[in-house]
Specification:
The chain has 138 residues and is mainly β. The protein is 3% helix and 46% strand.
């Protein structure tokens, strides 16, 4: 059976709202699936990055888990090389670890972001990722 040609553009969740240019380079969209829940201390969002888009360096006071659902992307912790991410990859990000993530130059990229221990705070945004940093993937 032939796969539909637009299969790569199909997503499980709606694309959501355009993310703030204050914290993203390029276009990204965020759809909150579980708004911050004060009982579970968790927030869950689906994030779609256009090819080449990324978020700023940032930390999560309570940590975060990324579950990659589509495309090819990058993840980098401060002081370490960029890691290539693909559908099915899971990244456990420890509290207060400075990092960024986003799409590779040639692929849209989608992940589910689970912010944990949100009673400590959700995200602290820092400086943008430079083109030199972004283009350092080997």
């Amino acid at each position: 059976m032939k796969e539909p040609e637009n299969q790569l553009n199909e997503t499980i969740f709606p694309k959501g709202d355009l993310a703030s240019a204050d914290y993203f380079t390029g276009k990204a969209w965020v759809k909150m699936l579980v708004p911050n829940d004060p009982v579970l201390n968790t927030a869950v969002g689906n994030v779609v990055f256009e090819a080449g888009a990324r978020n700023n360096w940032h930390t999560h006071p309570g940590g975060q888990i990324l579950i990659v659902t589509q495309g090819t992307g990058y993840y980098q912790e401060e002081g370490k090389p960029i890691q290539l991410l693909q559908a099915g990859d899971v990244v456990n990000i420890q509290p207060e670890l400075k990092h960024w993530h986003g799409a590779s130059p040639d692929s849209e990229f989608t992940h589910i972001a689970i912010s944990t221990n949100t009673e400590k705070g959700i995200v602290d945004w820092l400086e943008p990722v430079t083109d030199e940093q972004y283009n350092s993937f080997k």
